[in-house]
Amino acid sequence: MLRPYTKNEGIFKSPGQSNAWVGEDLSGANQEPPFRSYGGQNSMASNTAIFESDGTGGSMPHTAIADVANTLVIVDASYYNVLPRFDGNLRRFNGLTAWTVPCTSSSRSRYWKNLGNSYLFRWNGAPNEPSDAEAEKLIDQRYSGTLVVIHADSHAKTTPSKKVMWDLRDNPNNSMWDPWKAGMSACP
After folding, report:
1. Number of neighbours of residue 65 by Cβ within 10 angstroms
2. pLDDT value at position 96?
3. The whole model's pTM is what?
4. N or C: which end of the chain has fewer CB within 10 A?
5. Buried b (16+ CB within 10 A) or exposed e, 100-113
6. Are residues 44 and 74 in contact, defined by beta-carbon separation less than 8 angstroms?
7. Which domain holds residue 152?
8. What pLDDT tens digit does each residue of the chain (188 aa) get?
9. From its phi and psi, is residue 131 left (phi > 0), alpha (psi between -120 and 50) or beta?
10. Is 186 inside a domain boundary?
11. Residue at 188 is within a domain
């Protein structure tokens, strides 16, 4: 939908992502076969707590975000959805249910490995998930230990990658990842 207006697909590629591509990765060298045609997801990602990708929750309305100036919406990443590194449930703003997916065994609990230049779904003839230490090193490579974060009020800033990765753990009641600012609870 944006192509007639942008006229340049290069704007969707992060200059800090050396193997960025838009449209389709025809080489097949960088990612698992099911993920080779998700164009443009290899430079920026959306906060999965706001933009759920599995079809169960849909996107959160902008007016429901508790603190737009302190809520991460988009961040430098190598896959289109991302979450922080943590072991817990975000509590929904209405208090009815906890957002439990990160506590399950699904790949979402490891979506933090898509931050920066790390990529959870990489491929080398077989699935080749990075170790935690390798993922942290790759995340730091994007912009020398920093990531660009766009907040819900549309301001952007460079933030240390460790802060982005660990903000929910270190700041559980006012995390930039938590659109409800309702805190988190431990996994069962």
Report:
1. 21
2. 42
3. 0.80
4. N
5. ebbbeeeebbbbbb
6. yes
7. 3-180
8. 666 777 777 777 777 666 666 666 556 566 666 666 555 456 888 888 888 655 455 677 888 888 999 999 999 998 878 889 886 677 665 444 445 555 665 677 888 999 998 888 887 777 789 999 999 999 999 889 999 999 999 999 999 999 999 998 899 889 999 888 888 776 66
9. beta
10. no
11. no
- 37 lies in a domain? yes
CA distance 155 to 163: 17
Amino acid in the structure at residue 105? S
**Exposed/middle/buried for 175, CB within 10 Å: 0-12, 13-18, 19+?**
buried
* Cβ-defined contacts of 128-134 (< 8 Å, 24+): none
Distances in whole angstroms, Cα of residue 100 to Cα of each of 32, 56, 92, 117: 26, 12, 10, 26
Distance between CA atoms of residues 66 and 132, nearest Å:
31
Number of domains observed in the structure of the chain = 1
CB 76 within 8 A of CB 147: yes
